[in-house]
Design goal:
There is one protein chain. It is built from 9 helices and 9 strands. It is of the alpha+beta class. It is globular.
Length: about 325
């Protein structure tokens, strides 16, 4: 969500001419995240005027964008508190500017937190279960963008530099964990639409209550337990003495709506390792091959190396 594409006031006013959302009163860039350019926009003068989020897509495959738009609308209209995609006056969901596509979505109440307490983790778990249930009848599928092929290719791309920058132990960990994960098969786990990126900056809170989930641009079809593993690593695992209580709090919230099957419970410890490996590799790539941008953020790869080691050593 960092700003890579700068928009002027006239740019945004031009975009809004194809929406029934009122006239622009103010806007500001959102300097959080790393994938798209995002702006808060405020409008007035229409029954639909309000505060919205305008997104310019920087790296996503343009052919996949309609999937994300339809998914968010489906979830928003099936019980999940998440951004609803605004329709243009011709009924379409995407606009184009400066050779890039974008959308406008509703702005939810609440705010993101740097760290969740156990009550908030339970609420987050419940929200993730709501997402999985709301998307269970979504009739479109998207392949996992960070599956086995992606993982092998990106580890090969970063391996030499990782060893040089972070030391030979880091390179050895990449190759050994990849070999282990290649021996695992997850085809039998319950699956459907998953968020795939539910970090603390993608869930909103009003006090102790979760008020909405945002940023669905990693969503795809995969095992629900993989989504749980990604989210536990992102929200609950702080590499501290209270991690198990934090994990339990999240799982209590999740299973209050969707109890896990036994095979999911058995797979979760290994999926926690896979999730840590994926995000470590992604962060390594961004750190070792940085992109330019007006307001960019690169997240520390070492956090996820330590999380992978934590799960490998867990008993």
């Amino acid at each position: 969500m960092s700003v890579y594409t700068e928009l002027s006031e006239s740019d945004i006013k031009s975009i809004l001419t194809d929406y029934d959302l009122g006239t622009l009163t103010s806007f500001e860039g959102i300097a959080a995240g790393i994938e798209n350019s995002n702006f808060f926009i405020n409008t007035e003068g229409s029954e639909n005027s309000a505060r919205f989020v305008l997104t310019i897509f920087e790296r996503l495959d343009a052919t996949e964008l309609p999937y994300f738009m339809r998914l968010m609308r489906h979830l928003a209209h099936n019980g999940l508190s998440c951004p609803d995609v605004m329709q243009r006056t011709d009924g379409s969901l995407l606009f184009e500017i400066h050779g890039k596509q974008g959308c406008i979505v509703s702005c939810l109440s609440g705010r993101t937190l740097d760290e969740l307490n156990e009550t908030q983790l339970s609420a987050s778990g419940e929200s993730l279960a709501q997402l999985h249930l709301a998307g269970s009848d979504f009739d479109e599928a998207r392949e996992n963008p960070t599956g086995p092929d992606w993982l092998a290719e990106n580890i090969a791309a970063v391996l030499e530099k990782t060893t040089a920058v972070y030391g030979p132990e880091a390179g050895e960990l990449l190759t050994s964990e990849l070999a282990f994960q290649n021996s695992c098969v997850w085809d039998s786990l319950p699956d459907g639409v998953i968020h795939g990126d539910l970090f603390v900056d993608n869930i909103l809170f009003e006090g102790e209550k979760a008020s909405g989930i945002i940023d669905f641009y990693y969503a795809h079809s995969a095992a629900y337990a993989m989504d749980i593993a990604i989210t536990l690593n992102a929200q609950a695992v702080l590499l501290g003495e209270n991690d198990q209580a934090r994990i339990d709090a999240f799982m209590d919230g999740y299973e209050s709506l969707r109890p896990l099957q036994e095979e999911e419970r058995d797979a979760l410890p290994l999926l926690l390792r896979l999730a840590a490996l994926r995000f470590w590799v992604s962060r390594l790539y961004d750190a070792l091959f940085p992109r330019g941008g007006a307001m960019t953020q690169t997240k520390d790869p070492e956090e996820y190396r330590h999380k992978l080691l934590f799960h490998r050593h867990a008993r």
